Amino acid sequence: MNIHEHQAKALLKTYGAPVAEGVAIHSADEAESAANSLPGPLYVVKSQIHAGGRGKGKFKELGADAKGGVRLAKSIDEVVANAREMLGNTLVTKQTGPAGKQVNRLYIEDGADIARELYCSLLVDRATGRVSFVVSTEGGMDIEAVAEETPEKIITVAVDPDTGVTPENIDSITLALKLDGDAAEDAKSLFPALYKAFVENDMSLLEVNPLIVMEDGHLRVLDAKVSFDNNAAFRHEEWADMRDLSEEDDKEIEASKYDLAYVALDGNIGCMVNGAGLAMSTMDIIKLYGAEPANFLDVGGGASKEKVTAAFKIITADPAVKGILVNIFGGIMRCDVIAEGVIAAVKEVGLEVPLVVRLEGTRVKEGKEILDKSGLNVISADDLDDAAQKIVEAVKK
């Protein structure tokens, strides 16, 4: 689950992280009072969408010459003018795709005098099984280019969960970021605070880009991106208040109601699979045969008929889907339950695209018999390779 920048900064501020004063607004009428509450005279007007690259993004409605989704304003009048221009329009960035995202809220923030821009993030490093700091002196909007072209400028520092952030960790990060003076002193409190916020809030990502050294020599969190691990939602009731459904895909929202692991993609072959690894393999083999998956969908190991029905309905609700591949290897999951769920869904929503079903494992014979006797136009497959070829061929017709 992602949250907005202003929410992430408010959270980090409770841990003592240095952030600028700012106010989130939902309408242009709030812009003047928001700016008046800040010290000024420099302000930053920031689009709040769940995507990076906002500064270099472009608004669909405003033309190529318009400013991006993060703008400096040197007066309150400029703040108001920018707010009126940005709110309600569609911002397109590298991370939104060509469709972009509508800007429904802004963050009006006090400006900062920047001496240096740095990069700092925390994530779970699967190679070490530990939370790690990933830092670079090359902060700002082009960190992706740094990772691709000069990866040696990105340094990783793993933290032992038994000790937390140690003085040695701080020294390593400080050295990597070339901090000295007041900035080095600030680092002694900032980096343990970021780690504590990450762990206590079950984050999967905490990215500060840029982390800045100001002209006065002190550190400040200038931007913040936070993603929570959905698996920990049961112990964080406060997350519900931070969730912005307008930023999420309608199909993904519906899937979450049934505890389905669903991610919308850009292809035209809908996939329903049990098990994340098998789902990834299914998407890979679809691409191997020259097509693109429309989604990742893992119904889980013990899905009910109702859950399978819901999954099928979510797939068919996507107008981009021109064919469906059901790939089930029944261990805990029973093939007859999958078959019953598919039939129930088809009877409810209809079937207007080719459907290929590959079943294997527990009660596979019963599952195939249910499909055979259903009268549905189902293309049966013997294995995953066969299934992928059949659905790709069917979609091409």
UniProtKB/TrEMBL annotation:
Its EC number is 6.2.1.5. Its cofactor is Mg(2+). GO terms for cellular component: cytosol; succinate-CoA ligase complex. Mg(2+) binds at N209, D223. It comes from the Bacteria. One of its GO terms (biological process) is tricarboxylic acid cycle. The keyword Nucleotide-binding applies. PROSITE patterns: ATP_GRASP, SUCCINYL_COA_LIG_3. Substrate binds at N274, G331, I332, M333. It catalyses: succinate + ATP + CoA = succinyl-CoA + ADP + phosphate; GTP + succinate + CoA = succinyl-CoA + GDP + phosphate; (S)-malate + ATP + CoA = (S)-malyl-CoA + ADP + phosphate. The keyword Phosphoprotein does not apply. ATP binds at K46, G53, R54, G55, E109, A112, E117. Binds 1 Mg(2+) ion per subunit. GO terms for molecular function: ATP binding; magnesium ion binding; malate-CoA ligase activity; succinate-CoA ligase (ADP-forming) activity. Pathway: One-carbon metabolism; formaldehyde assimilation via serine pathway; Carbohydrate metabolism; tricarboxylic acid cycle; succinate from succinyl-CoA (ligase route): step 1/1. Keywords: ATP-binding, Ligase, Magnesium, Metal-binding, Nucleotide-binding, Tricarboxylic acid cycle. Pfam families: ATP-grasp_2, Ligase_CoA. Succinyl-CoA synthetase functions in the citric acid cycle (TCA), coupling the hydrolysis of succinyl-CoA to the synthesis of either ATP or GTP and thus represents the only step of substrate-level phosphorylation in the TCA. The beta subunit provides nucleotide specificity of the enzyme and binds the substrate succinate, while the binding sites for coenzyme A and phosphate are found in the alpha subunit. Belongs to the succinate/malate CoA ligase beta subunit family. This is Succinate--CoA ligase [ADP-forming] subunit beta. It comes from Devosia pacifica. The gene is sucC.
